[in-house]
User: What shape does this take?
Amino acid sequence: MAEKIQASIIGASGYAGGELLRLLLDHPHVEVKQATSEQHQTKFVHAIHPNLRGRTQLKFVSAAQIEECDFLFVSLPHGSASSKMPELVKLAPKVIDLSADHRLRDVAAYEQWYGEPHPHPDINAQFVYGVPEVNREALREAKWASGAGCNGTATQLGLLPFKRAGVEIVSALADIKAGSSESGNKPNLGSHHPERSGCVRSFAPTGHRHTAEVQQTMGWTRDDARIQMSVTAIEMVRGVLATIHVQPKEKLEEKDLWKIFRGAYKDEPFVRIVKDRQGIYRFPEPKILSGSNYCDVGFDVDPQTGRVVVISAIDNLMKGAAGNCVQAMNVMMGWNESAGLGFPGLHPV
Amino acid sequence: MAEKIQASIIGASGYAGGELLRLLLDHPHVEVKQATSEQHQTKFVHAIHPNLRGRTQLKFVSAAQIEECDFLFVSLPHGSASSKMPELVKLAPKVIDLSADHRLRDVAAYEQWYGEPHPHPDINAQFVYGVPEVNREALREAKWASGAGCNGTATQLGLLPFKRAGVEIVSALADIKAGSSESGNKPNLGSHHPERSGCVRSFAPTGHRHTAEVQQTMGWTRDDARIQMSVTAIEMVRGVLATIHVQPKEKLEEKDLWKIFRGAYKDEPFVRIVKDRQGIYRFPEPKILSGSNYCDVGFDVDPQTGRVVVISAIDNLMKGAAGNCVQAMNVMMGWNESAGLGFPGLHPV
Amino acid sequence: MAEKIQASIIGASGYAGGELLRLLLDHPHVEVKQATSEQHQTKFVHAIHPNLRGRTQLKFVSAAQIEECDFLFVSLPHGSASSKMPELVKLAPKVIDLSADHRLRDVAAYEQWYGEPHPHPDINAQFVYGVPEVNREALREAKWASGAGCNGTATQLGLLPFKRAGVEIVSALADIKAGSSESGNKPNLGSHHPERSGCVRSFAPTGHRHTAEVQQTMGWTRDDARIQMSVTAIEMVRGVLATIHVQPKEKLEEKDLWKIFRGAYKDEPFVRIVKDRQGIYRFPEPKILSGSNYCDVGFDVDPQTGRVVVISAIDNLMKGAAGNCVQAMNVMMGWNESAGLGFPGLHPV
Amino acid sequence: MAEKIQASIIGASGYAGGELLRLLLDHPHVEVKQATSEQHQTKFVHAIHPNLRGRTQLKFVSAAQIEECDFLFVSLPHGSASSKMPELVKLAPKVIDLSADHRLRDVAAYEQWYGEPHPHPDINAQFVYGVPEVNREALREAKWASGAGCNGTATQLGLLPFKRAGVEIVSALADIKAGSSESGNKPNLGSHHPERSGCVRSFAPTGHRHTAEVQQTMGWTRDDARIQMSVTAIEMVRGVLATIHVQPKEKLEEKDLWKIFRGAYKDEPFVRIVKDRQGIYRFPEPKILSGSNYCDVGFDVDPQTGRVVVISAIDNLMKGAAGNCVQAMNVMMGWNESAGLGFPGLHPV
Assistant: This one.
């Protein structure tokens, strides 16, 4: 096995940062050099990420102590990542930013959805949107890549096959069921267990920001209302299920859909088509994906109306965040795309 | 207080039957005469419905032992209710059938959705669809009434205000999140806790039978594809949340929607409009409705596209089954419509 | 029905305060006059307790605005209640304090368990420990009563029959499983849903303060180590299950235990003995008690060792807090002890 | 890497069998040859274990088709394993039986706890109890090993340090909180989601069979009542938490306990001592162990009474079943003891 590269994580105390640590600590080609947290500096990383107890003696350091490395992951809150990016990109030849700050190439769309102009459009322009299934070739040459939004990833991987197959979509409505870890690790009344437990909470009935990423991937303009997203928070910690109600322009039958989806995904290492005639896991379900990097996609079609229901499931912290970024790193470094991402998920769970 | 009437329940060991028992045992105008269960005859009802321990010494009897009474509730499986109905209606002057067998006036629609001709169209024709918000006047005179499907109830109470206000709907897509008690009390692999727990399972992406009830209430024909329903089973025992994505023909603003919903529901005892600017329960949520007969409805509108998202929550065993039927009985008997339905739900829960 | 008394609640925005509101708003002999909250003053109570929407137009007021009333409930944090009690008791002829401040008659025990001297031992001396099953006669004459700790209530109601029957206990170990609402409504990292969800967390392996209440009820001194308590937080919002491992001095058989428990509880309106040979609810379980005021108790005995396992379940916000206090009020006022406490709990749930 | 051995699994459709498949499919030294299931023969293993979709094209075969292999895992129901063992041991030079049938060396204890004489005491005598922490040296030479009971494993790993340190225990009461996967994959009313969800169910207050394994490991006779176990089923799919209330003969202080536990476990690859002064994961918790092979142990001591509370957490399907058996196989084969057991568990989860 070749020498390992040294990777560091800016903002490693959050949930995505912790998941990155878990993955990188066991990655065959990576050594974790530094992990920053202002709040927890000097503490062992396992004091915050208890699953890592006994796996590493690494301690959090302040971002002020960060050193040059081979690969830098930035896992800072939205807004904070872009403002620090001019300095951060000097630290390593390759950078992946997990935040929402560098996902949209169209800075006008950024301003529309995030409510303020992008602080560094020049830097933003050099980022590659880091979903390998969408952008693999560009990633191979990229020095900087963004992560992708979890709900946006589940949705676009459900719609991408139509684009690849040249099937026109009249409307697509993604009704998303989301877990509590999507909202990060800061407690508030809405996340307080007696309030959050068992909820079915209309979190963002309209206006979800990840819409912009789906539009970008599908090649739709920012005023194109073909894609609508609604997010409902349910009793779940990890996981996203996107139920995407698609009205194609021309009527599709089940065999057409098999062809469309197989065409897009038959060689993808992390997308599985799940559509069975029997059993209880006939369609994608997020619970068996916890900890895995899979995106499971399936579909159903209403023979009467031609409405297609695409069902797409991911673990929001894996394919929706850290796992996808490790996959992107593997592409950027020319490694086996599955390196360090071997965990298949559990059953029962 | 006046003398109580005597009510009996055919099929009282199921979940809806148990909820009926709970409600009727504390109803100010009702005495429970008999409760049948073939499987559990001779057992105390609290052996099956443990919440009733200490509340009644009633025992299940066989349907063969059923006697005449003042009001009969029929809570048998689909198909079984209609085949026995000719005999059952002789037992009491007033009957409510909770099953799906007598909900649709159009027996052609029944045949289309349930896959076989209705066995007794003549009897079916005399039933009134028993949702008071939809059908109050007819219920006042009814001798026989049906219950309503839980998912259908949540959906139609979200859409009814548009009909009442004469607002034309281009399309309505109800994405429904449902609890495990919807599927009844018979164990199977899909309901086995290690498999069902934490699931986000696409139960009926297309073709849900309750669609027929919504069409009937909205005055849409059975081939009218304006209403589409998808059901996803989530981690929840009781409860339905319907997220109904509505495209109205003409653009509506928030104030229009307030007017439409207040117009329909301002005097309804069991429908609350829930749409707050702050707090964590800004939209309807089923968990605070467990045990209550409320249907909470709210809405949001996308200013860009005019898409309206109506959110409707019920307890499937209450407003979606037993509670609604007690409300219907109260209407049929000319009692206070809220009698016996006073429990408001819990918080936190 | 006679005229209603006017009751007010100091500290009505917490979980026990909200449950009191729910109960008092439907109580046949009570009208809620005022409900205080410093943080939420001027807001509708249903803004904080969403289950009360449509049930009352009451708004929170500041404690500074509190007026005289017939019955005062104090639901303030520990320490705060006792420091304000000299003023509060002037407001009403009858007072119940739900806090931990006036539960222990022995102020030395108070100091030992709560780490500081009691601020008003004279006032404390006039309080009656407000568990009707323990103290009914004293409550009939009481002007001031305390509530009781939820875990302490579950434990003492499991042990009281032994005392009543004169059975000597060598040791009693209460292993308690508790829900998240026990810790109140203030968010923190430990209550953050992704962290609290699914936990089995050793909250207080030793040294639980409610031990003092159990000792007081059993007549054991504060250095008597016969009672030990451990609390584990589990996935549950409401509910306590106490598994109490009892070693009696003399060997008891099952029929002895039936006699002991029936002797203590056969006439109690809110204690049910649950010990069935078949079915799935053979022993007490908290989930079917949510919203009810029952304490269900059951037992098992190891024929080989004579160890008795007493199992005791309550809803911590009902029999463990607000419900018990309404029951105590009913006793203090000479009303039907069950008034306003009729909800039996749900199944399934 | 050296050539892989061929391993087969008898009874691979159950939960432990599925977990074995997951582990062995990614084990560096093992190739899965055959996996049997009578009910599911000819189906893909991923039809039953959906997490394995895309990981293997293996199909279940009937036990009648089983061939010789290098290592055989037997994962049959209790009773079935021992009756078939005379034939099964001919299939491979090394065998591990996950069932309860060959765990107890004392066949009189077997008869007492399992209610019938052991069918093959001669074979049973040649089995080694397969918990490496208890029996590592014997396992190195073993040809046949048993698995261990999940609750028994959590309990004995909490008590073993006392035995190793020569500390006499007066009494030990293990109060165990268990998940639903412990009861296997056969649906019944008790496992039906609406009934099992949110339960806190006294499953075995007394008389739990795993007591026998703890007695065997601790060197206590089968009539020695020093160890008592109670099992309560809680809302959890995977996981065991044993809260073990230990009364040592001589008073121990915290530093003594550190010495006792470090002495036993400092070199163990899969036992971690978890006892922190701050943070929310200060004691062991099963949820962060899902999928990992760790047993986390911690302790607390009551300074007043000397009662020690040992807290021990495992994933019942991993360290409590399949993971432990893979660890035992690694010992039996002379491989790195951690081979194939690298997954650390998730956080948050």
Q: What stands out?
A: Chain B has a mean pLDDT of 97.
